[in-house]
Each structure stands twice: as structure tokens, then as C-alpha cells.
């Protein structure tokens, strides 16, 4: 069924966009995911570096987010045998492709959302 004033092509296009947005926000809608991606946009980082960069995130949540972002192909985990063993994370091409969109969202937030009163 189409909405009043909309043709079938527009409805199908919007439905596809809605499905794609739902998939994107399944990953990006989780707290901290965008900030982790943003922190990795300047280059590879270790777990402790990311923990400091994303202030307020617990180690267990950071670990969960990194695992999820790795599972969906946005982040790669690299282990250097050492000694000492070093683990680093970096964005894949798909992860880097998200950075401009995250920058636009940040600009939108600065313009349209009230600043945190605290």
C-alpha cells in the first residue's frame, strides 16, 4: 500500500532505505560504537589507547564493541607476537567509509541538539 501522494517507486525506495537504516543502527546504535570508530579514524590503536580515548567506557563494554565491530567487518584486530604480545585495532575500508557520515552526524548534533548542561 502506498502513502497518499507517493508513487509505488518512492515507497519501495523508502522501504529499502528503512531496512538499510535498521541494519546500520543495529550496529551503530549501540552506545560507544560510533566513538570507537571515530577514535580509530586517526589510525591503529591498542586497547588501552582506545579506553582512554573513549572516556567513560568500561573495559568489558569496549571489548564487546570491538568484537562486534570486528564481526561485522568494520574493525580488524591485529596481534603482534612480541615479546611482549601487542594487540592493535584499525578500521577496514568499510569502517573508514563511515567516518564522513559520523562527521556529518557530529555537525548535525552541534547545530540541532542542545549542549549537555553538566
Features:
single chain; 118 residues; mainly alpha; Arc Repressor Mutant, subunit A; 3 strands; globular
Brief summary of the model shown:
The chain has 118 residues and is mainly α.
Textual characterization of the structure:
A hairpin with a 5-residue loop joins strand 2 (75-80) and strand 3. 58% of the residues lie in helices and 12% in strands. By secondary structure, the chain is mainly alpha-helical. The chain has a domain at 30-110: Winged helix-like DNA-binding domain superfamily/Winged helix DNA-binding domain (Arc Repressor Mutant, subunit A), CATH 1.10.10. The mean pLDDT is 89. The protein has helices at residues 8-28, 33-40, 47-53, 59-71, 93-112; strands at 45-46, 75-80, 86-91. A 3-stranded antiparallel beta sheet has the order 1-3-2. It is globular. The chain has 5 helices and 3 strands, in the order H-H-E-H-H-E-E-H. The longest helix has 21 residues, at 8-28.
- Beta-strand residue percentage: 5-15%
CATH class of the domain at 30-110: Mainly Alpha
Helix and strand content put the structural class at mainly alpha
Encode the helix/strand succession as letters.
HHEHHEEH
Q: Which percent range fits the helix content?
A: 55-70%
What's the CATH H-level homologous superfamily of the domain at 30-110? Winged helix-like DNA-binding domain superfamily/Winged helix DNA-binding domain
| Shape, per Cα inertia axes | globular
CATH architecture of the domain at 30-110: Orthogonal Bundle
How many individual β-strands?
3
The overall pLDDT, averaged over residues, is 89
For the largest beta-sheet, the strand count, sense and barrel status come to: 3 strands, antiparallel
CATH topology of the domain at 30-110: Arc Repressor Mutant, subunit A
Which sequence of strands runs across the widest sheet? Answer: 1-3-2
Query: Distance between termini?
Result: 47 Å
**Which value, in Å, is the CA radius of gyration?**
18 Å
Number of helices: 5
Task: Name the poorly predicted regions.
Answer: none
Amino acid at each position: 500500500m502506498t502513502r497518499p501522494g507517493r508513487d509505488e517507486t518512492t515507497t519501495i525506495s523508502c522501504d529499502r532505505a528503512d531496512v538499510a537504516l535498521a541494519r546500520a543502527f543495529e550496529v551503530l546504535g549501540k552506545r560507544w560504537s560510533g566513538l570507537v570508530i571515530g577514535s580509530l579514524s586517526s589510525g591503529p590503536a591498542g586497547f588501552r589507547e582506545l579506553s582512554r580515548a573513549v572516556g567513560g567506557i568500561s573495559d568489558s563494554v569496549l571489548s564487546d564493541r570491538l568484537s562486534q565491530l570486528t564481526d561485522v567487518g568494520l574493525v580488524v584486530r591485529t596481534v603482534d607476537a612480541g615479546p611482549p604480545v601487542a594487540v592493535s585495532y584499525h578500521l577496514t575500508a568499510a569502517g573508514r567509509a563511515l567516518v564522513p557520515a559520523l562527521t556529518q552526524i557530529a555537525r548535525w548534533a552541534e547545530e540541532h541538539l542542545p549542549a549537555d548542561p553538566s
